[in-house]
Amino acid sequence: MLFNPPLVPARLIARYKRFLFDAELESGEIITGSCPNTGSMQGLTTPGSRIWLSEHDSPKRKYRHVFELIEADATIVGVNTAMPNRLAAEAIALRQISDLGDYTTVRREQNYGRNSRIDLLLTDPLRTTTYVEVKNVHFMRQPGLAEFPDTVTARGAKHLEELGDMTEAGYRAVMLFVIQRHDCGRFRVCGDLDTVYAAAFERALKRGVEVYAIKCKVSPTEITPAGLIPIDEPGIAALNTSIKISAEG
Questions:
Q1: 112 & 56 share domain
Q2: Which residues cross the membrane (predicted)?
């Protein structure tokens, strides 16, 4: 996925009020922009970091610039939480995730569950309807190990329960973690930061929910899905034998 028009380089001054940030453009101009990420962004808000911004001319926008990428831990990380759904659809179309690319129809943001929307709904006359929930990941405390969540997420736990409900209703359900960085070779659920989510994850596995983690190649010019990586969870292979790990990109 190419960034078009090209991103604007800058230096981060501060990220604040969750949805806003201040930065200095290469011209020296100080701007305030929109940060499309409600998470804690642990490790991704260091003042002075190199960042890249998309620029928008729409008069409906309060802020012209949107925070897209940041350089951290000697790599470039995507922070826009609107990206993972698009990247997931791209990975599925490229057949990087099990057999999900064999479905004839992919619909986005479909109502289901308890007042929820599923990110991707896959249908095909010859296949079991599949519900795909996508989560954005960019948290890393140990080199090479991506983790989710980076803070408590009651909504995320609810989604896992609803995916389990779908499997028990006879459908197929998939939890897909999209990691907007390339310097990771493994993924795990961060149980020490959210014990409720970790418990919901274990229940989802036992109920037949499939789980995949896919990393991405990220640069100031493009971001693309780069293949599945192993999930570090005790017993995950035994509980979910349908998981197939492809070669890393």
A1: no
A2: none
pLDDT at position 18 is: 77
What are 57's two structure tokens? 């001319």
Inter-residue contact 232 to 86 (CB < 8 Å)? no
Could you tell me if residue 170 is inside a domain? yes
| Residues pairing with 122 in the sheet | 106, 130
* Secondary structure class of 167 (helix, strand, coil): helix
Per DSSP, 248 falls in state P
pLDDT at 234: 58
Q: Which residue among 34, 50, 73 closes a domain?
A: 73
At position 44, the amino acid (one-letter code) is L
Give CA–CA dist 91/127, Å, rounded: 19
Q: How confident is the model at residue 236 (pLDDT cuts 50, 70, 90)?
A: low
C-alpha–C-alpha distance, residues 12 and 47, integer Å: 5
Helix (H, G, I), strand (E, B) or coil at 199: helix
Pair (32, 106) in one structural domain: no
